[in-house]
Structures are given as structure tokens and as C-alpha cells.
Specification:
It is a single chain. 61% of the residues lie in helices and 6% in strands. It contains 22 helices and nine strands. The strands form two sheets. Strands 3-2-1-4-5 form a five-stranded parallel β-sheet, sandwiched between helices. A four-stranded antiparallel β-sheet has the order 6-9-7-8, covered by helices on one side. Helix 4 packs across helix 12, helix 5 packs across helix 8 and helix 8 runs parallel beside helix 16. The N and C termini lie far apart (86 Å). About 1% of the residues have low confidence.
Length: 585
């Protein structure tokens, strides 16, 4: 191909990837539902979007390195200390039972139905073990199931990606070495590949720890260091032993996520943008390599495989994993109806299948198209049915707002009690022990001490929280926290306005809507509370009582609408209003 054709092809792949993700966000559907058909169509209609022609022999190594970055990112989300209690038991069972049963059932089914050799069938089954948070997360955000149910599925998806990546790499080397003469050489090759990946991951994690803990780096440079380390180590491992870079990348991420006292500048906007773009590019590129001809004799057998995984294997895994636990019946069935395949399945299929075809493994040419069909079918099926199934099973999260109030001043506690009396499930957080004792004494729910720190430090979501009200007496903290928490909270984040335009270092210069308006700053609210003013909840009327000021409107279904400097929400019959009363006396 000419240089101009390469430029046009690469540019079109980037444009299609971002445009597909943009369209998916507007349609509120998983990006895979758009990326896969767009890439397949582009590859079928034109030779321009053909990464194998554009990049030649470099395509497969680039896919491997891109997957390494994605798996490192997945590993960074595996803070094992957060996986505790009931959730730990169910998730651990889902992982090992899901891996085992999927591997066995898919492999045995693929041999006769997809006309594969056992080695190719085992490789396909290992690829289909994974699910992944990049698919499960958007689906659950749309469905909004019960908080505990969402936590179990998110943790399973986050953990199964690296587990599946490791399993895929190990099975790949096992399949390759199984064709050699001599049992000793087979075992030796398998162990060497495992050792190379583990050693590379350990060395990479040690280098990253040394640099990030000893050198003061900006967020951008710290992210660049991590990317360079992951790509460098993965490339070195792959050069020594094919596809061992995936093992090293996962291990690096997991080690870095669980090292105590290390504040790594990861999972921040730049890093997440890079991973999101990489996912889009991979899906467009990989689906473009799947030709209509390769699907001709694979679609129906692959759909039969989907039926086995969706209707038999996954429900069996879910019910065995929740056996003798307090998971309700409806949640058990929903867990059994949520296992879409995603980016790691596609990327590992693309990486491994070409090498297996080159090695002459019978049926290996069907691994990629079969994986493509399974991904499209499962994402489409779960994407279209997850919400009605959740509603039928009664596992949807109530629409009622659950605000998190940050701050423990007496007036903030009084406000929380008024919101609670209006029917909301209020949660409070405060840093000072004195304020936490005040919240507990008022009978309000107190969030754990590390809640806000973990949410602001690693991109963790505040599960179940529909909005945050920052009510501390530190205006700069409110301003900085509002900027950070917008990435971690599903709903709006509001803060108190600074007392004046020159008050604080940060507060006057950050955007966003401020609460209440009309001069109701933190100091003013504290002053009025000391003078006897109290927050009260009452049914909405035609006019506010004399001396009262509107703070919030609570809709009949439990949605919270605050007064902000941008406007006052209109009240309707059935609403409850939360007012600040006049000072006593």
C-alpha cells in the first residue's frame, strides 16, 4: 500500500472508533454494540480499513501491546482489601466456578459443533472465559440493579479480565507445546513461558515502585512512566517468549494496586482516555479483519455455543456460586443473566488465533470469527434484555435519591435529619472524629472513614450514591472535591459557595453550580443555626411560610432537587420541600 493509503486507513480507523463511542454514549448503549458492526462493515466494504494490510506483520504485536496496557489498567482496579465479607465469597466462587465450567463446557461443545480439534477448542474456551468491566459496567449503569448485586458483578468483571488474560496466555503456550515430542519438553516450555511472564511482571513492578516512590512526578509524567514500563516489559517478555507480556502486564497492575503507601498517578483522565481510545481502535481493527467469508460456516454453530453459555453454563455457575448464601432468588437469577464478552476476548482471539493457524492447529481459523459472533450475540442479548429482566426479577435499585452529605457541622447534621424525614436514604461522611460522633449521635448513617479517600484516589465509584453535597467549612476542600468526585458519582455534585470572590485559594476559580444562593454560605448557615434557625421538611404549598427559605424540593418518587445559584426548582402537588426556618425569638 502507498503512504497515502496507509494515512487514510489509519485516520479512518481512529475516526470510526471515536465516532462509534460517541454515538454509543448518545444512545446510552455499550460501545461494543456500535464498534463491532461498524468495524465489520468498514472491513467488508473497503480495503482501506484493513489493519493487516496497513500494518502487515506489526499488527499482531501492536494488538498484544495494546492489550497489555488494558490489562494493566484492569489490574490497577484490583484493590483486594476492598473485596471483603459476603461479596468476597460470591465473587471468588463466580471466578473459579465460571472459569472451570466455561472452559470445560465450551471446549467439549466446540469440538463437534464447530468442527475443531481439541487444542483449538480449548483455546477458544479459554478466550470465552472473560467478561470484563468495559462491557458489564455500562450495562449495569443503565440498568441500575440493587447496590450489592451491582458490586458483585462489577468485581467479577474486573477480576475475570486479568484471570482470563493469564489463562489465555497459559493455555496458548500449553497448546503450542502440546504438539512437540516428549512430555518433558511440553512441561518445560509451559513452565518457561509462565516464569518469563511472572519474572517480567515482578521486575516491572519493582522498577515502577522505585521510580514512583522515589521521584516526584506530575500526573502526566507519572502516567507516561507507567505506560512506558508496561509496554517495555510486555515487549521484552514477548520477545523472549511469545505472548508472555500479558501475564507481566496483569501482574504489574495488581502489584501496584496493592502496594501499601504508594500513591500512583493512575486511572486519571489521561490514562483512562488512552485506554478508552485503545479499546475503540482495537475493536474497529479486529472486527475489520473478520470477513463475511470467514463467518459463512461459523455463525450458526457459534450461536449454538452462545445458547449453551447463556442458558446453561452461566445460570449453573451463578446458582452454584450463591448456594448457601443470603443472596435473594431474584439476584441469583440476574447474576445468571449477565456475562457478556468484551475487549480481552476479542484481542486475545486476534493475537492467538493467527499464531495457531500458522502452527497448523486444526480448526484454529475458526477461533476469531466464532469469538466475534459470541461477543456480538452476548452483548446484544444482554444489552436488550438486562433492564426488563431486572425489572421482572425485582432487583432494580429504587429511584429514590441517596445523597451523600460531606461535613459534620451542627447545621449540616440538622439538614441531614430534615432530608431523612422527607423520606430520603441519607448518608454522611466527615473526617474529624468529633463530627463523626455528632453524626452517629443523631442516628444518621455514617459512611466509613476511607470512603471519600478511595473515591478520590483511584477512580472508584461511590456505589449507590446518587449525588454529593459538600458542606464542610473548608471552601477549598469543597471546590477540589467537587471537581474530583464528578468522575466517581452517577448524579450531580454540589458544594457551598465561598463567602466572597477572594475567599480561598481554589474555591473562587472552580466552576459548577453552588448550593442555595442568596448568600447562604457555610458561615451564614452556621450563624443562623446558632441563632435558632432549623431545617424542616413539609408538604409543598402555594407560598413559603414567612421567614423561611427554600433549600430542596423532594419529588414524590424520592428525587432530590436542590436550590442552586443557577435557579430554584419549581414545586408541584405531592412534592416535599426542605426549608430553613427563621431564627428563634
Amino acid at each position: 500500500m502507498t503512504a497515502d493509503q496507509v494515512l487514510v486507513g489509519l485516520g479512518l480507523i481512529v475516526v470510526l472508533a471515536v465516532a462509534s463511542q460517541l454515538l454509543a454514549s448518545r444512545l446510552r448503549v455499550p460501545a461494543l454494540l456500535v464498534l463491532l458492526p461498524v468495524g465489520f462493515t468498514a472491513g467488508a466494504l473497503t480495503d482501506t480499513v484493513n489493519p493487516e494490510r496497513l500494518l502487515g506483520a506489526t499488527f499482531s504485536p501492536l494488538v498484544s501491546l495494546a492489550v497489555a496496557v488494558i490489562l494493566y489498567d484492569a489490574g490497577l482496579g484490583l484493590e483486594l482489601k476492598r473485596l471483603t465479607g459476603h461479596t468476597r465469597r460470591v465473587v471468588v466462587r463466580l471466578l473459579w466456578l465460571g472459569t472451570l465450567l466455561t472452559l470445560v463446557s465450551a471446549a467439549l461443545f466446540a469440538v463437534p459443533v464447530l468442527d475443531m480439534s481439541m487444542r483449538a477448542a480449548v483455546m477458544l474456551a479459554a478466550i470465552l472465559v472473560v467478561s470484563g468491566p468495559t462491557v458489564v459496567g455500562p450495562l449495569l449503569n443503565f440498568v441500575r440493579p440493587a447496590e450489592r448485586l451491582q458490586r458483585v458483578l462489577i468485581w467479577e468483571g474486573s477480576l475475570i479480565d486479568p484471570v482470563g488474560g493469564i489463562l489465555g496466555a497459559l493455555v496458548f503456550h500449553g497448546v503450542i507445546t502440546s504438539g512437540r515430542q516428549g512430555f518433558g519438553s511440553q512441561v518445560g516450555g509451559f513452565l518457561i513461558s509462565t516464569a518469563v511472564g511472572l519474572a517480567g511482571g515482578a521486575v516491572g513492578a519493582a522498577v515502577l515502585w522505585l521510580v514512583l516512590s522515589r521521584v516526584r512526578l506530575s500526573e502526566e509524567l507519572g502516567t507516561s512512566v507507567q505506560i512506558a514500563a508496561v509496554i517495555g516489559v510486555a515487549a521484552a517478555c514477548d520477545a523472549l517468549r511469545d505472548d508472555t507480556g500479558l501475564i507481566s502486564a496483569v501482574l504489574m497492575g495488581m502489584v501496584m494496586a496493592n502496594l501499601p503507601g504508594l500513591d500512583i498517578p493512575a486511572r486519571r483522565p489521561f490514562f483512562e482516555t488512552l485506554v478508552s481510545l485503545t479499546i475503540g481502535l482495537l475493536f474497529i481493527s479486529i472486527s475489520a479483519t473478520v470477513t463475511p467469508a470467514s463467518l459463512r460456516h461459523v455463525v450458526l454453530p457459534s450461536l449454538a455455543l452462545v445458547a449453551l453459555l447463556v442458558l446453561v453454563t452461566r445460570p449453573l455457575v451463578a446458582h452454584l456460586a450463591t448456594l448457601r448464601t443470603d443472596v435473594p432468588r431474584g439476584e441469583r437469577w440476574f447474576i445468571g443473566w449477565m456475562a457478556p464478552r468484551g475487549i480481552v476476548a476479542a484481542a486475545t482471539a486476534s493475537t492467538f488465533s493467527a499464531e495457531l493457524v500458522h502452527k497448523g492447529i486444526a480448526g484454529a481459523e475458526r477461533i476469531l470469527p466464532a469469538t466475534f459472533v459470541v461477543i456480538v450475540a452476548t452483548v446484544t442479548l444482554y444489552g436488550l434484555t438486562a433492564f426488563p429482566v431486572a425489572r421482572r426479577l425485582g432487583v432494580l435499585r429504587p429511584a429514590r435519591s441517596r445523597p451523600l452529605l460531606v461535613g459534620g457541622a451542627p447545621w449540616a447534621v440538622d439538614l441531614a435529619r430534615a432530608l431523612s424525614s422527607a423520606g430520603l436514604d441519607v448518608l454522611m461522611w466527615a473526617g474529624a472524629e468529633r463530627e463523626r460522633e455528632r453524626i452517629a449521635a443523631a442516628g444518621l448513617k455514617l459512611a466509613p472513614g476511607e470512603l471519600l479517600a478511595s473515591a478520590t484516589g483511584a477512580g472508584a465509584e461511590l456505589e449507590g450514591i446518587t449525588g454529593v453535597l459538600l458542606l464542610t467549612d473548608e471552601d477549598d476542600f469543597n471546590a477540589l472535591a467537587s471537581t474530583t468526585l464528578r468522575e466517581s458519582v452517577e448524579g450531580p455534585v454540589h458544594r457551598l459557595a465561598a463567602p466572597s470572590a477572594n475567599h480561598g485559594v481554589v474555591a473562587p476559580y472552580t466552576g459548577g453550580e453552588s448550593l442555595f444562593g442568596g448568600g447562604l454560605t457555610g458561615p451564614e448557615l452556621a450563624r443562623r443555626y446558632e441563632a435558632g434557625a432549623r431545617a424542616v421538611a413539609r408538604p409543598a404549598g402555594d407560598a413559603l411560610p414567612a421567614g423561611h427559605q427554600l433549600l430542596f424540593v423532594v419529588r414524590p418518587e424520592g428525587r432530590l432537587a436542590p436550590v442552586t445559584d443557577a435557579g430554584i426548582p419549581a414545586t408541584e402537588p405531592g412534592d416535599t420541600v426542605v426549608l430553613l426556618g427563621p431564627p428563634s425569638g
